[in-house]
Specification:
By secondary structure, the chain is α/β, with parallel strands linked by helices. It folds into 2 domains: about 5-80 and about 190-300, 3-Layer(aba) Sandwich (Rossmann fold), CATH 3.40.50; about 85-185, Glutamyl-tRNA Synthetase, Domain 3 (Glutamyl-tRNA Synthetase, domain 3). The chain has helices spanning about 20-35, 60-70, 85-95, 105-115, 165, 180-190, 205-215, 250-260, 275-285, and strands at about 10, 40-45, 80, 100-105, 140, 150-155, 155-160, 170-175, 195-200, 225, 230, 295-300. It has a 3-stranded parallel β-sheet, with helices on one face. The protein has a 3-stranded antiparallel β-sheet with strand order 4-5-8. Helix 2 links the parallel strand 2 and strand 3. The radius of gyration is 20 Å and the shape is elongated. The two termini are about 35 Å apart. The structure holds glutamic acid (GLU).
Length: about 300
């Protein structure tokens, strides 16, 4: 086994709402190559908090696919569903700073508001200063501040957003008591000591919210690289919701070759149909993230 420097720790964080499709495998390969090309660790986290969307057996199926592609991870896998206590103590910490408030707004009421207020697309803060009785079902929102949050994305350049104006107070615990992704992710990235996050550009929009939570919770920050997402012929991001086809593990060799091309790494023709291990050795040695296209979407 290759020695890992331990300085770089990357991760891949699939949601077990179905099998891996080409779009998620694209992100997995990119984050793997980015980590391994720096002799770094590559960790797995299973984002299984949204239990209504979890599909039984999907997490194992995803892991089997990663293995079939030679994408072996380090350390033990982190399952978000086993971390609930830690998320709740983070909520307590935010509550002590008076940054949380219960929100009883329904989706219907908010949609009605947005329909009547064109241009308004952030939460209108209806519940920010209300006394809400405990008998109501409520979500917990975090108060945002009118401050600019910036980060330097390795591929997309400098991003600056005003949190309150562009995102508004956002939910950390849903009405159905499920911890929101935005909160869980910052805690897990701290626990796994992640140094850089490589993920799809669809999550670029979440990053300043995550940095804000890191600041409020006193957590480490990471570097970021948001890469294009793969879209279908109609331009929709491949996802389980759009019924993207599951990866065929038997076609791993040709699929990996295709992915290296989609990552714009120009693998040599003789690697076509070569064992995945051999393709990955080449890809790790030649990985150049600067070759990734600076676009939002690519078609396979
Ligand atoms: N589980 C998320 C997804 O599948 C990824 C979260 C992340 O990389 O931060 O889109």
């Amino acid at each position: 086994m290759t020695a890992r420097s331990n300085n770089y720790i990357g991760r891949f964080a699939p949601s077990p709402s179905g099998p891996l499709h080409l779009g998620s495998l694209y992100a997995a390969v990119a984050s793997f190559l980015q980590a391994r090309s720096q002799q770094g660790k590559w960790l797995i986290r299973i984002d299984d908090l949204d239990s209504p969307r979890n599909v039984s057996g999907a997490a194992d199926d995803i892991l089997n696919t990663l293995e079939a592609f030679g994408l072996f991870w380090d350390d033990s896998i982190l399952y978000q569903s086993r971390q609930l206590e830690i998320y709740h103590s983070a909520l307590t910490k935010l509550k002590q700073q008076r940054l949380l408030y219960p929100c009883i707004c329904t989706r219907k009421a908010l949609n009605r508001y947005y329909a009547h207020n064109p241009g308004a697309n952030t939460y209108p803060e209806f519940c920010r200063n209300k006394q809400i009785s405990e008998d109501h079902e409520y979500a917990l929102r975090v108060k945002t501040e009118s401050i600019d949050i910036s980060f330097a994305d390795r591929l997309q350049g400098k991003i600056t957003e005003n949190l309150r104006q562009q995102h508004g107070d956002f939910i950390l615990k849903r009405k159905d008591k499920i911890i929101a992704y935005q909160l869980a992710v910052v805690i897990d990235d701290q626990i796994q000591q992640i140094t850089e996050i490589v993920r799809g550009i669809d999550l670029l929009d979440s990053t300043t919210r995550q940095i804000y939570l890191q600041q409020k919770l006193g957590l480490n920050s990471q570097k970021y690289m948001h890469i294009p997402v793969i879209v279908d012929q109609q331009g929709y991001k491949l996802s389980k919701q759009t019924f993207a086809t599951a990866i065929d593990r038997k076609a791993a060799k040709t699929t990996l070759f295709k992915l290296l091309n989609l990552l714009n790494q120009s693998p040599p023709a003789e690697l076509y149909n070569a064992p995945v291990e051999q393709q990955l050795v080449w890809a790790v040695a030649h990985w150049n993230p600067a070759h990734l296209k600076k676009v939002r979407a690519i078609k396979p």
